[in-house]
Amino acid sequence: MTSQVTSSFSLQAKPRRDVFAAMLQGALCRCPNCQSGRLFGGFLKVSDTCSHCGETYSHHRADDAPPYFTIFIVGHIIVPLVIWAEVAFKPALWLHMAIGIPLTIAMSLAFLRPIKGAIVALQWANYMHGFDPNAEPDFPDRA
After folding, report:
1. d(CA 99, CA 91)
2. CA separation for the pair 2, 115 (Å, rounded)
3. Are 25 and 32 in contact (CB under 8 A)?
4. Please, which residues bridge with residue 38 across strands?
5. DSSP 8-state class, residue 35
6. H helix intervals, the chain
7. Angstrom distance (rounded) from CA 86 to CA 93
8. 44/73 Cα distance (integer angstroms)
9. What letter does residue 137 receive in the DSSP assignment?
10. pLDDT at site 130
11. Is 66 exposed, middle or buried (0-12, 13-18, 19+ CB in 10 A)?
């Protein structure tokens, strides 16, 4: 006795996408599909679609990954610099704060957008979430 499973969606062939090239384009805040459209509509607001090729980005799920990676990277740069400055120069605490806090904020703002672009492009390159034409919807209709 055999049973057949049917599906309500059709399978489409997926071309292989270069993950590194896509992430580089995303970090440059450009569309990973056409490399010329803008990925962002605001500072951190991802555009719903690419203005050049029409690729849809409204279903990306970057969520908390960009801030996490930003904190990880900035922390691994700032902490050794603060320790080095303390050992080499022994500056006053107010000087550490006057330099370290603005530097940390500036680096965080500088890294956050490219990291978010790279993560959205990574999802696009790996057909994650809504980028996969063969995937079932993230939020199926309720009966």
Report:
1. 11
2. 49
3. yes
4. 30
5. S
6. 19-27, 65-89, 93-125
7. 9
8. 18
9. P
10. 79
11. buried
Instruction: Quote the pTM value.
Output: 0.84
Q: With a cut of 70, which residues of the chain have pLDDT below it?
A: 1-12, 137-143
Q: Specify the amino acid at residue 118.
A: A
Say whether 115 sits in a helix, a strand or coil.
helix
Note whether 119 and 19 are within 8 A (CB).
Answer: no
- Asked whether the CA dihedral 55, 9, 127, 62 is positive or negative, the reply is positive
102 phi and psi angles, rounded to 5 deg: -60, -35
Identify the burial level of 57 via C-beta atoms within 10 angstroms of its C-beta, where 0-12 means exposed, 13-18 middle and 19 or more buried: buried
CA distance 73 to 65: 12
Query: What tokens does 36 get?
Result: 């010329």
Task: Please report the pLDDT score of residue 133 as a whole number.
Answer: 76
Task: Compute the CA torsion angle 112, 127, 41, 28 (nearest 10 deg).
Answer: 50
Query: Which pLDDT belongs to residue 59?
Result: 85
